[in-house]
Amino acid sequence: MFLGEFYLDGGEKEKALENLKEAEGLFQEMGMDYWLGRIREMLAKL
Length: 46
What we know:
The protein has one domain (2-45). The chain is built from three helices and no strands.
């Protein structure tokens, strides 16, 4: 997630999307709702 956030801040949207989508899937599997919300906020910026 943090790598995706780093890429997003750096303007590398393609790399950010790849990392954020992977993190989103992992957080869904683990039921980590708080982090899912953060991921989705970042995805909305793309």
